[in-house]
Design goal:
This protein is an alpha/beta fold and 292 residues long. It has a single domain, classed as TIM Barrel, CATH 3.20.20. Helices cover 38% and strands 17% of the residues. Strands 1-2-3-4-5-6-7-10 form an eight-stranded parallel β-barrel, surrounded by five helices.
Length: 292
């Protein structure tokens, strides 16, 4: 096994999104090539924006493989029915997840009533709610507890304010882990370890930090310890602690922290190899012929 259970399905392919912004006619075949590579087990679904569904049929028709999609719906629950109708007409694309925003002004009760209707219309599809970073957060997180729906946390973006600090992210992770819930992360996790971006000066969370923070939250760590874990810049230490987790702890961790969206599969893969969490024998690049 080249990819351990700790890392299986960890990286959702968000190549279309900033800062990568890959052209679709390159991103889709590259994704399918990742799924045929020796690091395939690391790769989750292809993250696709619902507003661009009209572009998808021609791209999918040109591919031999089947495309599993996690559909982002920035328009919220009201935009889901039309997106589902479009997607069902596209041969070769299978919906496996939806990531739904919460529009300004939508009451929590209305949100969850709409989610229940969506779940009935799309059975077997994982539903993520993009939890807002405002005074609605507590109500939305509380509403998610005990439901089949998972949280989606933004961990960065194109401005500094898009990055939650350690305390904010620690509180969010603690809330989900404490309720037995699940979450994914998106944006800003450009590296395995906490870092300061040399070009922008943004303080960026590391995906290994988030993984270890989730483990510590699951075993009852306090907010200060979880925040300190998110701030840790010692990659070797983070990797060693995660690698040493027993199988049961890994299962609990990954049942809570499901995945994160990345605009590059190669970047996290390379860092995982460098930190010893993926064997050095695993190729970190794609064969040009595999995406021709």
């Amino acid at each position: 096994m080249t990819i351990s259970p700790l890392l299986k399905g960890l990286c959702d392919d968000a190549a279309l999104f900033p800062p990568g912004n890959a052209p679709m006619d390159a991103a889709v075949p590259a994704h399918l090539a990742h799924l045929c590579s020796d690091h395939a087990a690391l790769v989750g679904p292809f993250v696709f924006p619902a507003p661009r569904l009209d572009e998808l049929p021609a791209i999918v028709a040109a591919q031999a493989g089947k495309l599993e999609l996690s559909l982002t719906v920035p328009g919220g629950t009201d935009a889901v029915p039309a997106a589902l109708e479009k997607l069902r007409a596209i041969d070769g694309a299978t919906l496996v997840a939806m990531e739904i925003a919460v529009p300004e002004g939508q009451a929590t009760a209305d949100l969850f009533a709409a989610l229940d209707e969506i779940a009935t219309a799309a059975p077997g599809v994982d539903i993520f709610v993009e939890v807002p970073r405002d005074d609605r957060r507590a109500d939305v997180l509380g509403g998610l507890a005990g439901t089949p729906y998972a949280a989606k946390f933004r961990t960065g973006g194109v401005v500094a304010a898009a990055y939650p600090d350690e305390a904010e992210l620690a509180a969010a992770i603690s809330a989900v882990a404490g309720s037995g819930g699940r979450f994914k992360a998106t944006a800003g996790l450009h590296h395995a370890v906490r870092n300061t971006d040399p070009d922008t000066g943004f303080e960026q969370h590391g995906f290994l930090n988030v993984m270890l923070a989730t483990h510590r939250a699951a075993v009852g760590a306090g907010a200060e310890e979880i925040a300190a874990t998110l701030a840790d810049r010692d990659g070797a230490r983070l990797a060693a602690e995660l690698a040493a987790l027993p199988a049961e702890a890994v299962d609990t961790l990954r049942a809570c922290f499901l995945s994160f969206g990345t605009c590059s599969i190669g970047d996290p893969l390379t860092e995982l190899v460098d930190l010893g969490l993926v064997p050095a024998t695993v190729s970190t690049t794609l064969d040009e012929g595999s995406i021709a």
